């Protein structure tokens, strides 16, 4: 269940830059929410101790997906902030 949640948040994180053609500045908040959700799922995955080898493997995969989603969201926030600063710099003569 949590692995599917981590996969979904990763998928949404990869889709956000594609959907943000002209709304990079506004979608930084959405990326931050996705980041916090991936942190929450990551912490729940780490807290739950799996008994079997299969469940441990699935938990590690889910944690890796959450970490990747967090990295994608942080990269999007940094890139969007860079773009927004340059857009506002062009407004001032």
Question: Could you please describe the fold and organization of this structure?
Answer:
This protein has 93 residues and is mostly helical. The chain has one domain (2-91). Helices cover 83% and strands 0% of the residues. It is built from three helices and no strands. It has helices spanning 2-19, 28-47, 53-91. 26% of the residues are buried.
Question: Could you provide a short overview of the structure?
Answer:
The protein is mostly helical and 93 residues long. Helices cover 83% and strands 0% of the residues.
Question: Main attributes?
Answer:
93 residues; mainly alpha
Q: Roughly what fraction of the amino acids lie in strands?
A: under 5%
Gross morphology? elongated
Unreliable spans are: none
Helices and strands, in order, run as HHH
**C-alpha end-to-end distance:** 53 Å
Give the % helix: over 70%
The number of E-state strands comes to 0
Major sheet size, sense and barrel closure: none
**Rg calc:** 16 Å
How many structural domains in the coordinates?
A: 1
**Which secondary-structure class do the elements indicate?**
mainly alpha
Number of alpha- plus pi-helical segments: 3
- Overall pLDDT, averaged? 86
